Amino acid sequence: MLPRIDRVLEKVKTYNPSSDERLLQKAYLFSALAHEGQLRYTGEPYLVHPVAVTDILADLKADDTALVAGLLHDVVEDNHSVSLEDIQKRFGRDVAHIVDGVTKIEDQVPLASRQEREWASLRKVILAMVDDIRVILVKLADRLHNLRTLDGLPPDRRPVKALETLQIYAPIAYRLGLGRMKTELEDLSFRHAYPEEYAALSEALQNRRSYSQDFIQETSAEIQAILDANKVRGEVFGRVKHLYSIFLKLRRQEISLEQVYDYMAFRVLVPSVKDCYAVLGGIHGKWIPVPGRFKDFVALPKENHYRSLHTSVVGPHGQPFEIQIRTFQMHEEAENGIAAHWQYKEGKLSQEDEAATTHWLRQLLEWRQDGGTDKDFLQDLRVDLFPKEVYVFTPRGEVLSFPRGATPIDFAFAIHSEVGHRCVGAKINGKLVPLKTPMKSGDRVEIVTSPQGRPSRDWLKAAVTGRALSKIKAWLNAQEKARALEIGKAALDRELKRLKVGIKESQESGLLQEALKKVSVSDLDALYAEIGYGKISARVFARRLVPPSPEPAAPSAPAAQPETPREPTLMVRGAADLLTTLARCCKPIRGDDVVGFISRGRGLVIHRADCPNVSRLKYNPDRFMEVRWSEKETGAAGHEVHLAIQTEDKTGMVAAITQIVADAKAPLRHLEASVNDKGEGVIRLAVLIRDKSHLSAIQTRIARIPGVLGLRRVNR
Question: What is the C-alpha separation between 696 and 693, in angstroms, rounded?
């Protein structure tokens, strides 16, 4: 039975009466058709998942665009007949952008491993939220529902998803102020990432349950009495802290649960900021505060805009516990973060929410421009995602927050990347200190700069923020590349001079483009860098630019008879009269290395030796026979060969290619030209050729056409 959307629509109407119900119904039906017949790993109809994701977004009071994207977020990835263009045409550009942002990278780029695809997909979704914050909200809702149903996933894959959530998605939820979602993501992941620790901690807390409930009930009543005495109309909530936060404390401090004195916490919600401080005074008047545990995040909010008063006291029976005091509005913001207001247009945050997130999103945008690998990006991101606990002052009295252990190097890059690049020293509280000196809360920090200042590789050991690490790596990589370019160019120039070959002549003849393609580099600068890094030999590459000897003209051939192309003659060892058929999967031609496979009903099927199907058929070696092409030529062009040619998107490419085909007397059977997502031309053609040497001559001439970026033989 398919899930219904009615309950979600009712929830949406409670916070957005003007919601477009017909649009949401349309998206629901589109998703149902796209996922028809598909099942989740839990055995449920796949549609259960997008509806659940949309329900989570409705809890965040999402707008219609985000809700529609939630319903459609998997249709492109899981149904290859649906494209982003289809989504944009039916539901608009914003929805298509969000769906694209959360769609995994699979075969879109030539990556070496599944791990690299996952890194690239993570980087894609995180950077997409710079343009539209709704991208990450849909992804977080998607991840939350997947974790709720993680038991259906194969056991070996659960810890991977759980650890990824703890390292990336839960911290992102924290940075966006989504406290409720962060807590659920962490506790669900904790169970699968650390199953033994989860079970032990759950059992220990269960054994304390009776005491905890009595203590919470008694203490809540005493806190309520403090509110009444101060004539404050508020609410008091008591709870045992969530499991993952207790686990982190146990691991960080290397202590047992018996040594955790404040595993219970209370939350007091009041109408105004004035009431917050009045209640705080009443609590400190009744119980003894624990020294060093008071934090005023109302006067000095966290970077994610979180505001609250935190204090720990020794309460009834000598039991320490934590109390958080905040207004009702602060609580809503702490639980739902930017979604507490959802006052943005087309994915752009309102000014109020922008204060909490813009700085971080701008930093992500800078990282995108810095380049670097997907793995490096995620490593720097992990460093920067976790809570910042050191607050220092600029010379102008502004407050900046950093992770514990941050140094003046981090401070310099937080001010501006150029300040970081020119940094030569630092003053903390008016005294010169080494750049690797850790900063402490309350420090006043000043950076000393010089035009001759330069980052040092040693800074990577002293910096701790993702921004500083990213900027330092980018600067060092740029310097290394510049040096490699210089070395590589000098080395290649020496070899070309020795061979009496000029770069300009090689460009005009097309030899340079062909040689660059063979070593998989895009241009001369990239080539110089690869030579400078020692990855490409200057001597070997220079030899590729030596002009070949003139090729003899291809012999003329009679016109082909495409209706009944003549079969080539094959020599079959031990069975000369055996019926032979050319395999349709790899389309072998005279001159290709071939093998024969005895097929029931089709006789001997001839495959190219490098055909992927050959390796799959080798389970039965007795059915293979040795074959070779006869020396007798057929004379006519009778092999249909398909070529895919990648070119610059400019006029004249099709004409130049078809002229070469015509000059080679290879009848053209099909031609198709288009432009790919990168703005490159893609020309596909089918021609009739005589043999491999005929094909090679055509390929060589096409590859030398200026503007041809790549050429390959394809099956169809």
Answer: 5
